[in-house]
Amino acid sequence: MQALGALRFFPRLTATERNWLKAVGLVAGSVLLFHGILALESLAATRRPSERLVYQPVETSMRCMAIPHFLIAILFTASSRKMRRARSWLQYAGLAVMGVGLCLLFAKAGGREDLIAKGVFLLYFAVHEFRDEAFFYTANGDAPRSAGSGRPSRGIYLAPAALLWFSLAIVALCAAFEIGGLSRYTRPLYGDLSDSARRGLGVLPMLGLGACSAWMLRRARRFHPGGAAAFVRAHRPILRVFGGILLFILIDLILHGRVHALVSLHVTAWYVFTIQMLDRRPPATPAPRTFTWAWMRTTRAGFVFLHVGLFVAVTVGCAVWAWGFRNAPSHHAFRFLLSREAFPYWTIMHITLSFLPR
Questions:
Q1: DSSP H helical segments within the chain, as ranges?
Q2: Cα–Cα nearest to 18, from 119, 142, 151, 202
Q3: How far apart are CA 268 and CA 247, in angstroms?
Q4: At 68, is the pLDDT very low, low, confident or very high (cuts 50, 70, 90)?
Q5: What is the pTM of this model?
Q6: pLDDT in tens, 103-134
Q7: Cα–Cα distance between 349 and 106 in angstroms, integer?
Q8: Are 352 and 95 in contact (CB under 8 A)?
Q9: Can you name the residues that pair with 145 across neighbouring β-strands?
Q10: 185-193 long-range contacts, CB within 8 A, separation 24+
């Protein structure tokens, strides 16, 4: 009977929810793949951890999936119809300059080694991810429209803001009480404060979130007719996805003190969404020739070939650098394209360029 109940439940999922679950499955599969590679490297026991292909399975799988995503985003944008206008190229160039400036600021602030810089970087990426999930929600046709307009309710953007606040409150709380992987941030956040003072400060963000949430609930009708309950019913698909993203963030933070899985989820979500959009399009007449750019850009088979091919190429590149050159930083091309140190800068550029008007 329970199995029959599950069968009745899952067909009711919207495209937004189904796509997100597929993306989660791809993340899980990639992490298992790199866990397997790490197990083989550990059995070999001929190299130090710093000379291996897999630094950490979640991190390495993220890097090998995200770099192709960044490259494809650039290629697709540059070859899109909107880029036939000079104005679009000027906007793109302006965003590129802004991205370079943000990279320089990130480096000057200490980059990956500085807690504040890393925290701002993660917030920047989280905004990028929540914004794109809201876009998928609308493009899938699952978002109810606001009365009197063709746009989805602005209230859906309040949910990710609250979730980000909650994530920061969890970081502050776990660091204050030295819980899990976040204990590494106890001293950077709280210095030499006494245990009681540190824990008192640690609960303040969560108390603030509770007070703000209570205030918002009392005024919910201003954001959605029928109040908070009606808002939740109307936007169930995206709220479930936002809740799942929050779970990803919390699990990764508590276990590892990082949010690598969120980046992987962003990449796979775009992959699944793009395939869905390509499947909805009527086939081109005449059909593009196999292995041409038009084939890779406009057909499911071509897009999968492009994405999987770049993933394999990046993974092989990382393997060559690790197994052939022991991840030596003197090999500048590998370090510039594939290293953990360079990855945040590629990510900053990708996020900034994504703000080009769609």
A1: 2-9, 15-44, 57-78, 86-108, 115-139, 158-176, 186-190, 195-218, 227-234, 236-256, 260-280, 293-298, 300-319, 325, 332-338, 343-353
A2: 142
A3: 17
A4: very high
A5: 0.83
A6: 999 999 888 888 778 878 888 898 898 889 98
A7: 12
A8: yes
A9: 152
A10: 185/115, 185/257, 188/115, 189/115
242 phi and psi angles, rounded to 5 deg: -60, -40
Residue closest to 190 by CA, chosen among 173, 208, 207: 173
Residue 193 φ/ψ region, left for φ over 0, alpha for ψ in the -120 to 50 degree band, beta for the rest: beta
For residue 249, the one-letter residue type is: I
Find out whether 74 and 320 touch, Cβ atoms under 8 Å: no
Kindly state the tokens that stand for 74.
């650039």
Distances in Å between the Cα of 317 and the Cα atoms of 56, 59, 87 are 17, 16, 36
Q: Which residue has the tokens 């908070």?
A: 228
Q: Is 13 exposed, middle or buried (0-12, 13-18, 19+ CB in 10 A)?
A: middle
> What phi and psi, each to the nearest 5 degrees, are found at residue 99?
-65, -40
Give the integer Cα–Cα distance in Å for 70 and 352: 12
- Angle at which helices 15-44 and 57-78 pack, to 10 degrees? 130
Question: Is there a contact between 26 and 272 (Cβ–Cβ < 8 Å)?
Answer: yes
Enumerate residues 6+ apart whose C-beta is below 8 A from 277: 139
